[in-house]
Amino acid sequence: MGFALPDGWIERLGDHPIFDQTNSTKSNISSQREGVTFLNNQEKCIAMTKTNDLIVAVDSEIRILNLNLVKEAWLQEAHDNDNAPPTDKEWLWQVPYRILDTPDINFPINSITPNDNGRLLAVAGLESLAAIALPREGFCTVTKGLDYKRELHCRTMRIGRRYFDEASTSVLKVAWHPLSEFHSHLVVLSGDSMLRMFDVSKDIEEAEQSFDLSPLSRKKPSKFKGFSFSEYMGPSEEAVSFSLGGDSNKDGGWEAFTVYFALRNGHVYALCPVLPYASVVKREHMETLGCVADAKMKMLLSKGKTFDQLDDDHQALYYLQQLHYQWLDEMLKSTVVDRQNHPSLVDRSMINIQSNKCSLPFTVKRQGPFLTGGNFDGVLDINTAQISDIQFIKSKASDILVVACTDGSVRNFLLGTQVDPQWLMPVQNNPRYPWQAKLGEFLSSTDVLPKMALYESIKLNKNIQGHTRMNIVVDPIYPDTYYVYHNRGVHIVLMKQWIDLLAEMNATFSKGGNKKDVGDSLQKWATNKSGSSTRCLVDSSPYKRGESVPIIGLCIVTDIYLSHCLFALSATYSLLSVEVGNRRLVSIEKGSLVSKAVESQLRDAVEDRKGGEDGYTCILSLPPFEVPKSLQALQQLPNQSKVVIPASMGGNKKIIVNEETLRFFNKSAEKLQTDIRTIVKAGEETEKRMALQQIELRQQVVMAQLIDKKLEDIQTKMDQVRKVKLEQAMKQYAKLSMQIDTILAHNILSYQPERSEEEKQLLEKLRQDRKKVQGKSGYIARTNKLLKEVEKLKEKLPQKKTEQPILYTNTLSSTQLTSLKHDLDDQKHRMNDMTKRINSLMEKLTVV
What we know:
This protein is an alpha+beta fold and 848 residues long. The chain is built from 15 helices and 31 strands.
């Protein structure tokens, strides 16, 4: 009996009822997919939220399952079975899922896209678009004692009806803008080559912003009904996909405000700046861009040149940088200071900007097409290949554009120049603003077109014939890795190897190394230049000429509690899960401090032989042991692809034995045998190394015991010697202390410093005060005399007759005399105290 692994639930998840279909759903989906000829419509019927909720779209129904509940049920079942894996599916079927009650969604769902905080869900059909307000976190959990209702009512909003439903315009791709203040801005690309941005929190009918992506100007404004591309442009000039530039980072450029889009014929364009009216960006990011624009203007006027001395191109460039600086300045001035009304701005490094308050009266210019250079011009023959998807990736070495084509290939482009903001200038010359025409002429030149270089073109599946839809998904943890799912499976593309080399070369340049270092870096780049490694994770067309099952969605799980894995959903609603291992965060590079430390530990350490004892020698060999290359090549990915069985061959149907099936089984068996041999060989190498390490460990333990025994003997002797030395040192210290005190006292008595004028004046004043207190007519003598008189008056007082009438004379009464005596006693006490202090001070001054 085996034992249950913590991630064993991943393989069992596909048996959950959330993936069940009804007969009507199967027929609708099959008929829909057979009649679809739109190769560029984004297809994504599975998604994940940050709250670990798995969302699945089945026809027009949306289901949600919390994966935390699935794993908890798996662990509980394994615990009840003494850590044995469950043999039935009852534990999985008992995990509930919810169905969203959305009657307004009456169309087959083509894609679902949750926003960043998981509160909104964009739902797109072929020609329909809606947004669903998802309930709060934890709505999938079941509370004991309460009635469980599978259906959950949610607010549904149909977006842009007159753009899509009424005009029958197809929805190609949707994405939530990452800079939106309340995560409510939805960017939509439609079949009329219009890019629209909706703020679903304010207006769901009218777009907040609209951009015409057609490279040719339309003869008249686009109408929503009866639009025909044949009147304006050919099918090769249609915009088919777009990608946003990502989040705002302090070390980023203009890519956060850029939208990259591709035409069907392979041309790539960009729009900048494009951002929601209410956006949240990093303050440091905006300030850095402003400093760069200001530095560029100053650089143009460097070397003592004035503006009039610049040529036309440099003057136009100066005007452009002025517009950049003005736009950034106005964005910073539009910052909302009141943070109480904007809870998203708790982090003071983030600011809220309002892009609609820009005073520039120009529209954003389409920049492109991107120049590729060399013999490759980037133009495709739409009869053989078309652009299916585009994705922008910001890596540590360079900005990358990934373009997927319908012929089953992907192309990785390195962006040579950064896209910066550009605006359309008036065509007619304005005498009041002549600089506009000069800047417009400069921006229309081919010299300022953005540039990119084709690094590699990869054919993912050579068996693809005709056109197939390709969708790109970037790994949220490792940006140098992306996945491509299509009609024949799922492929992973790993660019880490050449991106690391490029980053190393960039680091050498940025450090300002000498010519030798730069030359070595370039030589290493040219010598070790290699392409990306690819692997097929899911094979939905195992037979070369057989039926294929399209993949209609892919999502990636990155939660630390769940796992790092991906889920692929086939058109038959079979879930295929692939575990993706996490990389080692700290890599030991050759020549690094860690590598040198390891080599130093393993280097033979032969001590000098003393007393006939043998020295210690390490038996481990250099270089340090690493994972076998056969396992490193896997890059923590499964070597065997998951296979999707076609519907015509699945279930209880008999296996048809023909050339295709035999070739498939033979290939699978050979690969399995190769994998077994590889694992066995790697296991033997590992066991051999472990045996050596065990011997080395025992040797080190024995040596450590010998060293410890020697240290104890040496320590005992050293303690005795140290104790004797310490006692001698203490005696010597005491003797020296006595001598120092004697010499110090002698010096104090023999060498007194002369009094200063202030000290002499103070001493004279003290003598006078002493005379006033203790002199013949001093305060003490006067006090004694008064006390004697008081005593005499007390003696005479009883002798007087009490019968005599009271005479009002100038003599003191008894009460007054008593009070006077008390005051005099008090003064006498104070005088005595003062006398003592003066005498003490006089003695000290006399000694000094």
